[in-house]
Amino acid sequence: MNLKTAIKRLKAPLCFVLAVAAYACASTGTPDGGPYDEDPPVLLKCSPQLYATNNKEKKITLTFDEFIQLENASEKVVVSPPQIETPEIKTNGKRVVVELLDTLRPNTTYTIDFSDAIVDNNEGNPLGDFAFAFSTGEKIDTLQVSGTVLDASNLEPIKGILVGLHSDLADSAFVTQPFVRVARTDSRGRFTIRGIAPGTYHAYALQDVDQNFIFSQKSEMIAFSDDTIRPSFDFRTRQDTLWLGADSIAIDTIKTVEYTHFMPDDIVLRAFTETPTTQYMVKNERTVPHKFSFYFSAPADTLPTVEGMNFDATDAFIIEHTAKNDTIHYWIKDSLVYNIDTLRMRVAYLASDTLNRLVPQTDTLELAPRTTRQQIAKQKADKMEEWRKELDRKLRRRRKNDTIPIDTMPPIEFLKINSEIPSTLELYQNVNFTFDEPLASIDTAGIRLTEMVDSVEVEAPFVLRRKEGRLRSYELLAEWHPGSEYRLSVDSMTFTGWYGLYTDRLEQSIKVRTLEEYAALFMMIPQADTTAVVQLLDGQDAVVREARWSEGRADFFFINPGKYYVRLFFDRNGNGVWDTGLYEDHRQAEEVYYYPQALELKAQWDVEQDWDLRATPVAKQKPLDITKQKPDEKKSVKGRNAERERKKRQ
Q1: Looking at residue 388, what DSSP letter applies?
Q2: Rounded CA gap, 196 and 180, in Å?
Q3: How far is residue 430's CA from residue 523's CA, in Å, rounded to a whole number?
Q4: Would you place residue 245 in the very low, low, confident or very high pLDDT band (cuts 50, 70, 90)?
Q5: Angle at the Cα of 162 (from 157 to 164), degrees rounded to 5?
Q6: Structural domain of 247
């Protein structure tokens, strides 16, 4: 008998003191506080009885052998079938009391899954994987299924998402009926649904924001199984080890134990959030006189139609829009138009009605600039006044020292250019320019690229082109030679903006890295196809490079040495990016796979790596190093007494 058991049997404080004193006197050496409590709470009795049938009571009382607590009951405790009114769950000393507020359904098995929420009050030892069940009918259902819910975009385990079953196999069940059985995922994304009756089911996951157990909001993350599930079981055996004593490290017996194995236990649900489909104008704004913008809630196939009410909108704009047409900027060409204080217009576009159907809608808008022409003029005047004051201070200093050079030319306002010209250029990079407004003209004669060849500057050919789908972004492409040094010079007035400003002079030295500084990686993926996009990732799960699959492989050249990870997705619609799913069309999100190990690449290495996409189960593919949702540490002191004994023997 250990100290914990002895103390539980003592009835008076005096006996407790005597027991502690006796234990201390019996121990040799320095007292260390006695053995650790390693035992979880033990269920002594319950009302109604565990697995009771024909139960009509909605109040469940569980009594344990010691004082207990409930940890994160709202997250961990799940009642199935799901309860519309949240059950009341309380602790009182050694008792847990659960009161169901919904009316009990006839001939139904109820399960209250506590997971590891019940812990003792002393060391916090959890009563792991504990579930209570009863039936309102003659029999109790005992089948169960289990699996994992992953984020479809990156295979992250999803903690705390609701997982449910429908016996109604119609697709409409998910959006019209509550689940028949439910569970919730743990920190590993794992779930177990218990108390299932024999039959055929569809499995779903739902981030149930409104707690109605129905997919009723497009913003809710969901997952659904393509295949039906038929719960079953068989009998299997395992090897259990019996030790000589509670704190012993010596094996007494290894015995074969038969247990019930429930199937399926490997369900994988890939969860996603649908792209918003309810179309409406989120906002409109005119930040400066010569530009106004529309922002929409969802992608659109067409652009709005703008009709001017106090101006002529025919060919009046340079239109800049995103690929999905959800953000649109209108740059006004004519100064007579953008100098109008308030632009009045009719905007026609497609918007969703109450049935989420796209119908024509026309809004009448009045747009005044957030920053007016007068404010812009005042800002320029203030800057000029600051320059005059600074010039005056310089002139006064010069009277004392006439060698101080002074530029008496007033400052020029240049067109802002955001240039990406690294001093050390990667071999796969190009030089990029982005401007604050659309360009009216480009004088390529003002751009000069030279390469140092035997200490002599030699003209290097280049191409300047606008980036696809980007109105104000350009890239300069050249044949960058490994290890070479270049000089890029851009004269002033090379780039002229639509509103008359031009760029200042720009000059930058560029050193291209050598081939010896790089590694190369060749991923051999026979199970992929031409829709596959392979991504090289860093330690933060961020994309470093990506390549299309071709002829059984994806090649990555000019990689900086380091540790990398690899992800693949099947770009089914060919748009070059990962796309989410849509339940209405029963369309899953595009499939994602991870190479299950890190790849260490060193300079001058050419690594050829075979990858069988399905050799490792999907739920175990993502390396733990880049998995952000880490498994919770199980709070347990099991084995601490044995560890103490081992140290004493040393």
Answers
A1: H
A2: 9
A3: 25
A4: low
A5: 115
A6: 144-273
